[in-house]
Amino acid sequence: MMPDEAHLTSARPAPDTLAIAGGSPVRPPNRPWPRWPQPAENAPDLLASVLAGGRWGISGPATGSEPYERAFGRRFAEYVGTRHCVPVDHGSSALVTALEALRLPYGSTVLVPALTWVASASAVFRAGLVPILVDVDPETGCVGPDNVAPEADTGALIAVHWACAMADIPGIREITDPLGITVIEDAAQAHGAQWLGKQAGSLGRIGCFSMQHSKVLTAGEGGAVVTDDDALAALLEELRADSRRYAGGQSTAMGLDLVESATLMGANFCLSEFGAAVLCAQLGILDEQHAIRNANYLLLGKLLADVPGVRLLNHREEQTRLSLYEVPLIFDPLPDGVTAQQIADALTAELHTRFYPPRAPLNRSTLLRPWTKPSLAHLAERFVAEHRARTYPHAEHLVAHTVLAHHGSFLGDERDMADIADAVAKVLIAYQ
Ligand SMILES: Cc1ncc(COP(=O)(O)O)c(C=O)c1O
């Protein structure tokens, strides 16, 4: 070998050098991942029909045809298997209206798992109530029957289906129902997940969904509340439309679809016709997308079974269908001196799609600071006092040992799963 060549060879990183340290990545940077969101084929036509149709929101004059907002509500209720669905503008609004519909006394407490997006707790404050954070099941990351520790004034529990696991709602309800505590399912991350064949959202008294950009069913922003309870559904309609409900019967030309029923005071949380039209289209491909993602997830599980030091999240066997949202890869134990953040960064560099640890449990989240809003000061005082001495060992442990991948990366094929498994193996070998 010429001296120059020897120099070149020794400067080149070894094949197992991590991409984050200058090595070549497992996946060539020019091989794209599936895009998210993926518009359904009929989405442009439905959107165009709203643009041309003259009604862009349900508070506009009726056109004689069914508003998309109503059509989506009808179709999503059918999908979830509940009698009613009231569409709203955000998942947070779904939670606020659900809590308001319960008409709990001001300042009552609501149990909320520590491992969730901040909205599960901030919605409680917005409804004039105080969230009490509880720990989660160490296997699923969801609140479970063992975590139900009500206060004397607890009126509700928000059961979040986390990442791609489902909370054991029937188990929770065995404890909460006799105490008169209402279970609201926060199914923002779980459209289409099933527990013994029943859809997420239909297991609690009220189910709440988000249709924000990253969710499996999305219009960029959006949400929905579902319930079997006729009286609650009527209140939910008012709460989301400034105290107005749908007029009974068909809408008439030049009339309005909403009547001022005003049994209680609402706010404007209405979903626009653009959002509703997109959701009508996207709902048509949701189950197809679930099938692709779930087949890929199954394959990834098989591939990772050969990689020591990593596993997928455990699900309860009663969960008969997965709805992948953020897919947890569990590294427990972590290699010595290595953090989940370091693994996430190394995987991101190998694969050119984002891997990231879960956010901090809500007891130490910088996003949950109710004392910064004067209108919440009174509720914040109790919140702070209640949480001084509480700890969340299971949530903390999961956060420290988990790396998440977005479900959009599971809409491709087997090669993508092989890339993920290869990258995980490479990173773990490098960090051992
Ligand atoms: C569990 C959970 N609840 C509530 C929400 C709030 O939904 P939105 O962002 O649509 O208000 C989210 C959104 O990420 C969520 O993940």
Question: What do you see in this structure?
Answer:
This protein has helices at residues 3-11, 43-53, 68-80, 91-101, 119-126, 169-179, 230-240, 273-304, 340-351, 377-387, 393-401, 414-431; strands at 84-88, 109-113, 130-134, 154-160, 182-186, 194-195, 198-199, 206-210, 223-227, 245-246, 258-259, 311-312, 319-321, 326-330, 355-356, 402-406. It is α/β, with parallel strands linked by helices and 432 residues long. It has a domain at 43-283: Aspartate Aminotransferase, domain 2, CATH 3.40.640. The strands form four sheets. It has a seven-stranded mixed sheet with strand order 1-9-8-5-4-2-3, with helices on both faces. The chain has a four-stranded antiparallel sheet with strand order 12-14-16-15. Helix 2 (43-53) runs antiparallel to helix 8 (273-304) and helix 3 packs parallel to helix 8 (273-304). The two termini are 34 Å apart. Mean pLDDT is 95; it is low at 1-10. The site of pyridoxal-5'-phosphate has 14 residues, from helix 4 and helix 5.
List keywords for this structure.
seven-stranded mixed beta sheet, Aspartate Aminotransferase, domain 2, 432 residues, alpha/beta
Q: What oligomeric state best describes the polypeptide chains here?
A: single chain
- Tell me the helix content: 25-40%
Largest sheet: 7 strands, mixed
Helix/strand order: HHHEHEHEEHEEEEEHEEHEEEHEHHEH
